[in-house]
Amino acid sequence: MGILTDYFAAPDDARAAVAAHTGPSAPDPLTAQPGFATVERTGIDPFVVLGSLASLLTGRPYREVTADARHGSLVASVGDEGPWVVSVTDTLVGALAGSTPAALEQVAVRWSATEELAGSDPAALAQALHRLAALCVRADDAGHQVYCWTSL
Predict the structure, then answer these.
(1) How many CB atoms lie within 10 A of CB 121?
(2) Which residue in 72, 97, 105, 121 could disulfide with 136, CB within 3.0 to 4.6 Å?
(3) Any residues with CB less than 8 A from the CB of 34 and at least 6 apart, and which?
């Protein structure tokens, strides 16, 4: 069984933390507000694999990318096997939001050649990147941040 990953946009860490209990696309049971804009079941781990993506997109070294305080930072946790909500860096959100479709296609090819994604289909990765980029554009336009809901 693999790790489940949904990426979503929320106004802040406090609101994003609610998703740890309900899932990001479910309405908030306390406020009845609708769920967050979500890209479901990406299969993209928010730690190593997303760090590799950020390094490729920004040209920054992997160590620098993962040293960012918001890279995979725990926002909320329900238990030892999750679900958890972790943050995505503003730098990566900006890079995805500002990328052209052609640039995303090129990055997907390079990304598929990384150790973590060896053997992955670049076209499938590009499709996931297009979905994530669209979410990042929405988040950026709304002044929101991006998070990953993840569970075993």
Answers:
(1) 11
(2) 97
(3) 27
Among 75, 74, 88, 77, which Cα is nearest to 44's?
A: 88
For tokens 């949904």, what's the residue?
Answer: 6
Return the pLDDT at 85: 98
How many domains does the structure of the chain reveal? 1
Distance CA 148, CA 16 (A): 9
Instruction: Note the pLDDT of residue 29.
Output: 67
Cβ neighbors of 30 (< 8 A, separation 6 or more) are 18
Q: Tell me the residue range of the domain where 62 lies.
A: 4-151
Structure tokens at 72: 């995979």
**Cβ contact 89:60 at 8 Å:** no
d(CA 125, CA 142): 26
**Secondary structure (3-state) at 84:** strand
What are the tokens at 95? 């890079």
Q: How far is CA 139 from CA 1, 37, 103, 115, 151, in A?
A: 30, 9, 20, 30, 23
Chain centroid to CA 26: how far?
Answer: 18
